[in-house]
Amino acid sequence: MTKIIGLTGGIGSGKTTLATYLKSLGIPVFIADDEAKKLMQSPEVVAEIQTVFGTAIFENGVLNRQQLAAIVFSNPEKLSQLNAIIHPAVKKQFGFWLDQYQSEPFVVYEAAILFESGSYKNCDSIITITAPLEDRITRVMQRDNNTREQVLHRINAQWTDEQRIAKSDFVIDNTYTQNAKLQLDEILKILKIQQNEG
Question: Tell me, what's the pLDDT at 45?
Answer without folding.
Answer: 93
